[in-house]
Design a protein that fits this description.
The protein is α+β, with helices and mostly antiparallel strands and 318 residues long. The protein has one domain: Clavaminate synthase-like (Double-stranded beta-helix), CATH 3.60.130.10. It has nine helices and 19 strands. The longest helix has 13 residues. The strands form five sheets. Strands 1-2-15-5-18-3 form a six-stranded mixed β-sheet. Strands 8, 9, 10, 13 and 19 form a five-stranded antiparallel β-sheet that branches. It has a four-stranded antiparallel β-sheet with strand order 4-16-7-14. It is globular, with a radius of gyration of 19 Å. Keywords: Antibiotic biosynthesis, Dioxygenase, Iron, Oxidoreductase. GO terms for molecular function: dioxygenase activity. This is TauD/TfdA family dioxygenase. Its cofactor is Fe(2+).
């Protein structure tokens, strides 16, 4: 994959939003052509400043639903980065690829770069299709993939994930999004949703491997963490399978992660950086890090992809 494109801004902080507005066209052109662009020199230092930059770019934020890791919400559609252990990598994934409405655009602002690690990493999932093993790729293309979530004490509570404490509101959301759900004792919730693994980009029509099959699979978890969660709760907070519910082989999960690594482009964060990512075309990841680190994000430009939502009831087992 080509290096991550970097656009340098000489604008002083008081002229930040105006500079972005004047350069909206070249920023958007780079994003459309390369799938991601890093704007360096803007000195973004707060949630409000990220929101101002987004407004200057004509970006309208969306509200996160079904998040898999906790975030802190800020005004004007800005969130903290997912709260994930600093010593564990977040492998390549497309944000909310299991939702019925997927963010087409992601914006990240680095308020404070880590002392060590935590670099930016992206991978073009259009190119990834050529590196995946043929047999599982054909099966995923035909069947899609299945995500099972168990909302319990580990991870995000269902009230936070769905933005409501009402069971009836959750039922309405699930019905509209093609999600099967079941209430268990102790106020636990189980959901199952089947989605296309390969989607077509809404602007170009090109196919892309847009999903979180490997990231949310049990084989990507640290084995000790996996056993701890199973011993404590009797179920993992999330797991993925073939679209028919068939169990994913470790070799397939490893092959997906290896294919991502072979096509990764990275760049160390600097304080004040702004990163824009086409979330349909590009996967993103986060390396482990040391030291204090603060990243803000905005999910934006939601899209309902053709053929993305599949009937979960067609899956068997798993």
């Amino acid at each position: 994959m080509e290096p991550l494109p970097v656009l340098h801004s000489p604008a002083p902080p008081h002229d930040r939003a105006d500079w972005v507005a004047r350069h909206r066209a070249p920023i958007r052109e780079l994003l459309a052509g390369r799938g991601a662009v890093l704007v360096r020199g803007l000195a973004v230092a707060s949630a409000g400043e990220l929101a101002d930059v987004a407004a200057a770019l004509g970006v309208a934020p969306m509200t996160e639903r079904e998040g898999f890791a906790p975030r802190m919400a800020h005004p004007r559609g800005v969130y903290s980065a997912s709260q994930w252990p600093a010593d564990e990598a977040m492998c390549m994934h497309h944000e909310l690829s299991y939702a019925a409405e997927v963010p087409g655009l992601l914006m990240f602002a680095c308020l404070r770069a880590a002392r060590e690690g935590g670099d930016i990493a992206v991978a073009d999932s259009q190119e990834l299709l050529g590196r995946l093993p043929a047999a599982p790729l054909e099966r995923f293309t035909r069947e899609g993939w299945l995500l099972t979530r168990v909302y319990h004490e580990a991870g995000v509570a269902w009230q936070q994930a769905f933005g409501t404490g009402s069971r009836s509101a959750v039922a309405e959301y699930c019905a509209a999004a093609g999600i099967e759900h079941e209430w268990l004792p102790d106020d636990r919730l189980v959901t199952r949703q089947r989605r296309a693994a390969v989607v077509h980009h809404p602007a170009t029509g090109r196919p892309a491997w847009c999903n979180q099959i490997a990231f949310l699979n049990e084989h990507t978890l640290d084995p000790a963490v996996r056993e701890y969660l199973l011993d404590l709760y009797g179920a993992l907070p999330f797991n993925t399978a073939y679209g028919d519910g068939g169990e994913l082989e470790r070799s397939v999960v490893d092959a997906i992660n290896d294919a991502y690594r072979a096509g990764t482009a990275g760049e160390p964060w600097r304080d004040g950086d702004l990163l824009l990512i086409d979330n349909i075309r590009m996967a993103h990841a986060r390396d482990p890090y040391r030291g204090e680190r603060e990243i803000l994000t905005m999910l934006a430009e939601p899209v309902r992809l053709t053929g993305h939502v599949l009937a979960a009831s067609a899956a068997q087992g798993g």
